[in-house]
Amino acid sequence: MKSTRLIAAEILLNVVDHGRSLNDELPAALADTELDDQPFLQQLVYGTTRYYFALDEIIQKILDKPIKDKERIVHMLLAVGLYQLWKLNVAEHAAINETVSAVTESKRKWATGLVNASLRRFQREKDAILAECRRGDSFPGWLNKRLRQAYPEQFAEICGNSNVPGPMTLRINAKRVIREQWLKLAETEGIVAQACEHANSAVTLAAAAPVAMLPGFDAGDVSVQDEAAQLCAQILELNDAARVLDACSAPGGKTGHLLESAQNVQMTALDVSAERLQRVGENLARIGETAELIAADAADVELWWSGEPFDAILLDAPCSGTGVIRRHPDIKLLRKSADITALAKIQRNLLNKLWPTLKPGGRLLYATCSILPDENSHQVAGFVAETPDAELIPLTLPADAETAAGIQWLPQVDGHDGFFYALLEKQL
Ligand SMILES: C[S@@+](CC[C@H](N)C(=O)[O-])C[C@H]1O[C@@H](n2cnc3c(N)ncnc32)[C@H](O)[C@@H]1O
């Protein structure tokens, strides 16, 4: 069986050089790894991805010349070794010796001396090398620039918070159990949890737990969902029997929450990906809810819309995911600056195309898990300026940043993800 360190380096290579996501890579690798080694593999993969830009800078400082393209696995093994010495509580001799063994295992015996010497040099000169490192927060230059521009005061905190893994937060199904009752039940099972401050359905666990251990998970009493994502039902405030469109629904977290938030909601859940839409069906089945599921591009309105307008629309738009980097650190490696312009165009097109499907007097909630104004406040302000019957409804929830439109939440350690909401009403 392959060593954990070599598997981690191979995954890192596939993410950095071949644009693969951790979701593509990690499940199969974990399935091939001994149960006892799985947490360490996850730690190495998430950690080296999270700190890749900084690790890369350290490697450039330590090596006299870059490693050749066809030997890039050695570069990634060095990153795995350095990460252990920098960030993990692993015995240093084990971190070095096991990483060097993984170099041999990768059939790059020529590189064992180089990796050994490089790791030992870092071990000796760590403080001096790190003091010179300009990319300690490990964000790509383009994102750094955009965040610094958007949040000059909060920039450092945003990067820091985005490097701390998010807590496990749950949504309590109000149709089935009261939040305080569930907290008591959890306590009797030895699970430490507390009610979240803003979302009235949310509780955060002191430590992540397998879902099978959560009271009532199989029965649909609880679902895993960040607090920020749970504001959606609270903001939209559906009436019973409302006719609702969830335009970008997969995997169905918010679809489920909207269905739990009122009685007899007539839900149409769209997603462009038929494969991902299946997950919506599975997730709704667990919580005992149903929706009309349609695999379609939401912008192709004439292909899927019956012509009967909706009382409410959720547009949880495809976005950069820059508010959830702490949960998906590969976003820092996979996204490029040009993606933001392309995504903003897609988002505006979805807003324009879906607006006619909303009833006069109806409300559309625009949401993203981005923290970039071009996808959020600028996007919505631009849409409102060009859409005479669209009115921006002020939200009373506290925000983490001033915006021209909507509320912007930024990632908080032990708290919620970065998220954006803007509520629009169609004038009568
Ligand atoms: C942010 S995720 C939605 C998360 C979901 N609302 C939830 O809470 O679980 C965005 C989704 O939009 C889908 N999507 C992207 N472009 C789309 C389009 N043009 N029409 C419909 N769905 C689209 C993606 O497949 C993805 O599942």
From TrEMBL:
Cite the active-site annotation.
C369
**GO cellular component entries:** cytosol
Q: Name one GO biological process term.
A: regulation of DNA-templated transcription
Q: CDD domains given for it?
A: AdoMet_MTases
User: Which InterPro entries does this one have?
Assistant: MeTrfase_RsmB-F_NOP2_cat, MeTrfase_RsmB-F_NOP2_dom, NusB-like_sf, NusB_RsmB_TIM44, RCMT, rRNA_ssu_MeTfrase_B, RsmB-like_ferredoxin, RsmB/NOL1/NOP2-like_CS
Is Mitochondrion one of the keywords?
A: no
Give the enzyme's main class according to its UniProt record, as a single word: transferase
Q: What does this protein do?
A: Specifically methylates the cytosine at position 967 (m5C967) of 16S rRNA.
Protein's recorded name = 16S rRNA (cytosine(967)-C(5))-methyltransferase
Tell me the organism. Answer: Reinekea marinisedimentorum
